[in-house]
Design brief:
- By secondary structure, the protein is of the alpha+beta class.
- It contains 12 helices and 8 strands.
- The chain has a 4-stranded antiparallel β-sheet. A two-stranded antiparallel sheet has the order 4-5. Strands 6-7 form a two-stranded antiparallel sheet.
- A hairpin with a 2-residue loop joins strand 1 and strand 2.
- Helix 3 crosses helix 8, helix 5 packs across helix 8 and helix 10 packs antiparallel against helix 12.
- The radius of gyration is 28 Å and the shape is globular.
C-alpha cells in the first residue's frame, strides 16, 4: 500500500509578521535601521553645510602644535606638543582624579554608612548632619570651597609646613620626594607581583580549608606581611635600586620632586566627600536589608561585633550595595568635568576647551570628549557588573 506523503505548507513572508517572536525581531531591526539612517542623514547634512560655509572638517588638527601649557601632567608635555598629546594629558588627568576619587569616596562612604547605624547617638547624629549637608549643597560650590580653603589657609612656600623630612605643604601644593628607579628595580616589581599571586592563592586555600574543616587562618595578616616583606627583602638584596629627588625651595616655589597641585587636591577632596555622602546612604540601606536575625545568630555564636559586620553582614549586604554603587562611580567620573572651575586641566579643559577655541573644530573636539566619557562609563559599568555577579547570591 503506497504511503501518501503529506504536503508541507509553503513558506510565506506574511508568516514572519503574524508570528509573535519574529514580529518582535523585525520591529527591532526596522527601529535600528531607522535610527542609523537618521544619524547618517544628520552627519552627512552637517558635513555638507560646513563645506558650503568653507569650514574644514576632520581630525587632522590633532597633529598641530597646541601652543598652550598644562600645569599638571603625568607625561612629558610642552607648549610645542601637539593637540593630540594635550588630549592624552587631559585623559590621564581625568583618569587620575576619577581613580583617586573612587578609592577615597568608597572608604569614606563605607565608614560613614556603618557609623550612621552606630548605637552611639553623637556619632550617628554627626554622620547624619554630614550626609544631609553634603548631599544638599551643589558640588560646584564644594569644589570652589575646598579650593579656597587650600589656597588661602595654607602658608606660602617660604613658610611651608614640613610634616616629614622632604615633604612640604603650602598654598602651591604638596611637594613630595620623587622616586628615581634604577634598572635593578624590576626585581622588586617582579617580587611584588609574585607576592600578590601567592597571597591570592593562599586566600583561596584558607577559604577552602575553612569551608571543609572550620579552621581559620589569619589571612589578612599573612597576606599583608607577604606583600610587604617579600618586595622589601628583594629591595635590600638588590642594593636598594631606588633614590629620591627631594624638592627644594628655589625662589618663590619648590623645584624638583613631585608636586600635587591645589587644583587636584580641591577637586579630589570635593568629589570624594560629595560622593561618599551618597555611598554612605547606600551602605546603610544595604546593611539594614540584612535580617537582624543574622546579627543575633552571630552574637549567639560568640563572634565579635566588628567581625560580624565584616564577615556576616557586609557580604550579604553587597548584593544590595553594588548596583547603586555603580551609578555613584559613574557620577563621580562624569562630575570630574567640573574641574575647569578651578583650573585643573582634564579632558574637558584641554581638548574640549582650549583646543576647541584655538582650532574652531567644535564638532570634532566635542565628539572626542563625548566618546571618551562614554568609554569611561561603559568600562566602569563592565567591571562593576562583573563584580556584582561575583557577590550576587547563587540560587540552588
Amino acid at each position: 500500500m503506497a504511503v501518501m506523503e503529506q504536503q508541507q505548507p509553503s513558506f510565506r513572508l506574511s508568516s514572519l509578521w503574524t508570528d509573535k517572536r519574529s514580529r518582535a525581531i523585525l520591529i527591532q531591526i526596522f527601529a535600528l535601521a531607522a535610527l542609523f539612517a537618521f544619524l547618517s542623514f544628520i552627519v552627512s547634512n552637517t558635513i555638507s553645510n560646513l563645506r558650503l560655509l568653507g569650514v574644514e572638517t576632520g581630525y587632522g588638527f590633532l597633529g598641530e602644535p597646541a601652543s598652550y601649557d598644562i600645569n599638571q601632567r603625568l607625561i612629558e608635555y610642552t607648549s610645542r606638543s601637539s593637540h593630540g598629546r594635550a588630549a592624552v594629558v587631559g585623559i590621564l588627568n581625568t583618569l587620575l582624579v576619577a581613580f583617586c576619587g573612587i578609592i577615597l569616596a568608597t572608604i569614606l562612604g563605607f565608614i560613614a554608612g556603618v557609623l550612621r547605624l552606630s548605637s552611639n547617638w553623637l556619632i550617628s547624629r554627626i554622620v547624619y548632619c554630614y550626609v544631609e549637608f553634603t548631599r544638599n549643597v551643589p558640588l560646584l560650590l564644594q569644589i570652589l570651597l575646598w579650593h579656597g580653603i587650600i589656597v588661602h589657609s595654607l602658608p606660602r612656600p617660604k613658610q611651608a609646613l614640613e610634616p616629614a623630612t622632604g615633604f612640604f605643604l603650602s598654598n602651591r601644593g604638596f611637594a613630595v620626594p620623587k622616586p628615581v628607579f634604577e634598572p635593578a628595580f624590576w626585581a622588586v616589581v617582579i617580587a611584588f607581583v609574585v607576592a600578590v599571586a601567592v597571597a591570592i592563592g593562599f586566600k583561596r586555600y584558607a577559604a577552602k580549608v575553612q569551608e571543609q574543616t572550620g579552621k581559620q587562618y589569619p589571612v589578612f595578616s599573612i597576606c599583608t606581611g607577604l606583600i610587604v616583606l617579600l618586595p622589601l627583602i628583594v629591595y635590600f638584596l638588590a642594593g636598594a635600586p631606588m633614590s629620591f629627588d627631594v624638592p627644594e625651595l628655589k625662589g618663590f616655589n619648590f623645584r624638583g620632586g613631585l608636586t600635587v597641585r591645589p587644583e587636584f587636591m580641591a577637586l579630589w577632596f570635593a568629589l570624594s566627600v560629595y560622593t561618599a555622602a551618597f555611598i554612605a546612604e547606600i551602605v546603610r540601606a544595604g546593611i539594614q536589608s540584612v535580617s537582624h536575625g543574622q546579627t543575633e545568630a552571630s552574637y549567639a555564636l560568640g563572634i565579635k561585633p566588628n567581625i560580624t559586620m565584616r564577615l556576616v553582614i557586609l557580604p550579604q549586604a553587597l548584593r544590595v550595595i553594588v548596583p547603586p554603587l555603580i551609578s555613584q562611580y559613574l557620577n563621580l567620573t562624569k562630575n570630574s568635568s567640573l574641574a575647569i572651575a578651578v583650573g585643573y586641566m582634564d579632558i574637558v579643559a584641554t581638548i574640549g576647551g582650549i583646543t576647541l577655541n584655538q582650532t574652531g573644530r567644535a564638532l570634532e573636539a566635542m565628539s572626542i570628549v563625548l566618546g571618551l566619557y562614554l568609554f569611561f562609563s561603559l568600562s566602569i559599568s563592565s567591571v562593576m557588573n562583573w563584580y556584582n555577579k561575583r557577590v550576587a547570591l547563587v540560587e540552588r
